[in-house]
Design goal:
By secondary structure, the protein is mainly alpha-helical. It folds into 2 domains: 55 residues, no CATH class; 63 residues. The protein is 71% helix and 0% strand. The longest helix has 25 residues. It is globular.
């Protein structure tokens, strides 16, 4: 059995696409208190103002994690097209999730803060919802 699993893993690995590594960031990523400060600045800039939510009052560590990891460790790197690309990914994913409307609305606002247009967002959400509906119909047809 183990041999078959190993063989399958080798076959999967051989079939993977080989992308060239991306560029390294041109500047060091902040550490310590500077990490939180840079993340807070990125979060504020993207959101169009300070982010204060009841969740963060209840669990402030959640916002600290977002600020230091997402908004700094990732977004502070100048080698990524993080603003528009990450928001397109977030809006696409959230538009396909039932019950995620508040998060979708927040990310649509952020998308506009980083330069995406209303038309681009409408087109994206229509395509995702259409694809999601088709996937659900196909799954129901199989059962």
């Amino acid at each position: 059995m183990r041999g078959a699993a190993d063989e399958g893993a080798r076959g999967t690995q051989a079939a993977r696409l080989r992308d060239a590594p991306g560029n390294a960031p041109s500047r060091p990523i902040p550490k310590g208190d500077a990490l939180l400060a840079a993340g807070t600045a990125n979060q504020t800039r993207l959101s169009g103002g300070p982010v204060e939510r009841p969740l963060f009052e209840f669990a402030p560590i959640a916002n600290e994690y977002l600020r230091t990891h997402l908004f700094d460790d990732i977004f502070e790197r100048d080698n990524l097209d993080w603003q528009k690309a990450s928001e397109l990914a977030a809006v696409g994913m959230l538009s396909a999730l039932p019950g995620a409307e508040p998060q979708l609305q927040a990310h649509m606002r952020i998308s506009m803060n980083v330069g995406l247009t209303t038309g681009q967002l409408r087109q994206l959400t229509r395509r995702w919802r259409s694809a999601w509906t088709q996937t659900q119909l196909a799954a129901q047809a199989r059962h």
